[in-house]
Specification:
With 247 residues, this protein is mainly α. It has helices at residues 9-30, 32-35, 39-68, 79-101, 107-130, 142-163, 169-192, 216-246, and strands at 6-7, 69-70, 76-77, 132-133, 136-140, 194-198. The protein is elongated.
Length: 247
């Protein structure tokens, strides 16, 4: 049995940081969804916020946290499944923001958008776990799986509510810190649900071609943080330009 999970605490900390920064960026971008003048502007705002939340706050956090985990077996990651998990996170978050943010805001839309986003986040997580290739067989504690899905849905509903109600910078920072805890809570609950059994050294066919590398977590962190900072800077300049025009 390889159920003991040891964590690289630096990568665990970086996974939380990227989740907070992604959440903050998404909240900044989501402000534009309800006030968009045209359908094209609204779609652009939804996709931008969906990318920041889905790819930055959720998928990058998930993948860095996976790389932080040492189960005593060499692990590589199937590239198509890993890439698809990122797409699912992006689509789910964009769909949730679209449902909750178009038209008149309501509780029913909030719950529907949150369920859509939460199930997508959970799907991303477990597909990302299925992308792991190693000489071991995975099984799951279904009670903890159910708990992780519930956390994902509740966190998504909270994220959508915050996205359309938080306006001040201090409120957004506080919201992003809370969202980071929620996203990490879902991930580490899902990881705790996993049991690993040694299968006698049998690795999948494309094991050698999978993503791996000691610096992969740091590299993903660096790239995603750089992209999020650029998006925040561009968004800040746009807001200042708009404010100058409206004066």
């Amino acid at each position: 049995m390889h159920d003991h999970q040891n964590y690289n605490l630096l990568l665990v900390a970086l996974s939380y940081v990227v989740s907070v920064l992604g959440s903050f960026t998404a909240l900044q971008l989501a402000v534009m969804i309800p006030v968009a003048q045209t359908g094209k502007q609204r779609t652009a705002a939804v996709l931008a916020a969906g990318a920041a939340m889905g790819i930055g706050a959720i998928w990058a956090m998930h993948f860095i946290a996976m790389l932080a985990c040492d189960m005593g077996l060499q692990v590589t990651y199937d590239l198509p499944r890993t890439a698809l998990s990122a797409v699912i996170a992006f689509v789910a978050c964009s769909a949730g923001l679209w449902v909750a943010g178009t038209g008149v805001f309501s509780g029913a839309k909030l719950v529907l958008g949150g369920v859509c986003m939460g199930l997508g986040v959970a799907g991303m997580h477990y597909l990302g776990m299925a992308a792991m290739m190693m000489a071991g067989d995975m099984s799951y504690d279904m009670d903890l799986v159910a708990a992780s899905i519930a956390i994902a849905v509740i966190a998504s509903i909270a994220a959508l509510w915050l996205a359309f109600h938080m306006r001040g910078p201090a409120q957004m920072i506080g919201s992003a810190l809370v969202m980071g805890v929620a996203v990490c809570g879902m991930h580490y609950t899902g990881m705790a649900a996993m049991h690993m059994e040694d299968n006698g050294g049998q690795v999948p066919e494309n094991f050698a071609h999978g993503l791996q590398g000691g610096n992969l977590g740091m590299t993903i962190f660096g790239v995603v943080v750089a992209l999020l900072v650029i998006v925040l800077a561009v968004n800040h300049l746009r807001q200042r330009r708009r404010a100058a025009i409206s004066i």
